[in-house]
Every structure is written in C-alpha cells, then in structure tokens.
Amino acid sequence: MSITDEVLAANKEYAAKFDIGGLAMPPARKLAVLACMDARINVEQLLGLKTGDAHIIRNAGGIATEDALRSLIISHHLLGTQEFIVINHTDCGMVTFTDNQLLDRLEEQTGFSAVSPNHFHAFVDLERNVRRQVSRIKHHPFVPKIPVRGFIYDVKTGKLGEVHEHRPHASHQNA
Ligand SMILES: [Zn+2]
C-alpha cells in the first residue's frame, strides 16, 4: 500500500466523524500565517488555532515569494485578514545548500536546465531571512498598514521567538 493509499484510508475515518462542514470561508481570527513547510511544524497547534481560524501559507523556507504574496493579498483584500505572521524555524533545511549548488546538481542529474524556478531561496542567516520576508510583505504596494510580525520557531522546545525589525543605523541613512 502506498502512502497515498494509507492517507486515503485515514480520510475515510476523518470524514466519518466530520462535524465542521458549517465553517465560513473568511478566517474567523482574521489572521494569515506564512510558514516554512518543515514537517515538524504544526502551525495551527503551535499558535492555538482551530480549523477555520486562519490562512496558513507554506513553502520551503517560509519565503514571501510572488506566489506567497499573491495568497496574502487575496487573504487580506478578499477574505478580510487583518494581521500577518511569518514563521521560520531552527534547523531549517534551507541553510544546508546554496541555490547554485542545487541548480548544478539538478542539471547534472537530469541533463536539463530549466527556466523555472529561477530561485530556490536558500539562505544563510535565519534572522535576516525572517526580516527580509517581513519587509517584502510590509512594503508591498498592495499590502496596507496592518501588523506584519516575524518569528523563529524552535523545533526542540516548541517556542516562538520574535525577530524584531532592523532599524537602519544613522550612518546608513546619511550615507
Ligand atoms: Zn524550514
């Protein structure tokens, strides 16, 4: 039995006990979360959210890609979310390679080069990565002035630590 068959069997059990068919489309807590896809992170559980409370947008690294921004913009403008949270985490696989290494490996393995994806968004500095995603979201022209905060989730303790916005040094502003 494949994993897909196993999870389909699990869904039969889930549907047999299903009792949340009456949920509204807009998230009840008016929150959208952008998080890494890491399998150790249960976004709803770690934030005390229930089904129907929030939009959860996930990708490798918790990156504010064109597509993640698309979802956040729809989330706010069409479905009424009023706060955004970005979650990266300790021990993230995205710091274990570089874009060029992965691209070289894929081209060697397959014998092909490809137009897309043109970035894998690997990164080195976790805090800087969080700040960068928060900034990309905050300063997008279609995102109004709503709270956008960034966090690092510790996969060993379950704790969330906030990454505060970097304030430019005066010397940089004057340069
Ligand atoms: Zn990750």
Shape: globular
Bound molecules: zinc ion
The chain-level structural class is alpha/beta
Rg, nearest Å? 19 Å
Distance between the termini: 63 Å
Spatial order of strands in the largest sheet: 2-1-3-4-5
Query: What's the tally of helices?
Result: 6
| Percentage beta strand | 15-25%
Query: From N to C, what is the helix and strand string?
Result: HEHEHEHHEEH
What are the segments in which pLDDT stays under 50 over at least 5 consecutive residues? Answer: none
Mean of residue pLDDT?
Answer: 95
| Percent in helix | 25-40%
Largest sheet data: 5 strands, mixed
Number of strands: 5
Supply the key terms.
6 helices; 175 residues; globular
How would you concisely characterize the structure shown here?
By secondary structure, the chain is α/β, with parallel strands linked by helices. The chain contains 6 helices and 5 strands; from the N terminus they run H-E-H-E-H-E-H-H-E-E-H.
Mind explaining what this structure looks like?
- The chain is an alpha/beta fold and 175 residues long.
- It has 6 helices and 5 strands.
- The protein has helices spanning 3-16, 43-46, 66-79, 99-110, 126-138, 170-174, and strands at residues 31-36, 54-59, 83-89, 148-153, 160-163.
- The longest helix has 14 residues, at 3-16.
- The protein is globular.
- The termini are far apart.
- The relative contact order is 0.16.
- The mean pLDDT is 95.
- Bound molecules: zinc ion.
- The site of zinc ion has 7 residues, from loops.
- Residues 36, 38, 61, 89, 92-94 line the site of zinc ion.
How would the blueprint of this fold be written?
Blueprint: H1 3-16, E1 31-36, H2 43-46, E2 54-59, H3 66-79, E3 83-89, H4 99-110, H5 126-138, E4 148-153, E5 160-163, H6 170-174
Parallel strand pairs: 1-2, 1-3, 3-4
Antiparallel strand pairs: 4-5
The structure holds zinc ion.
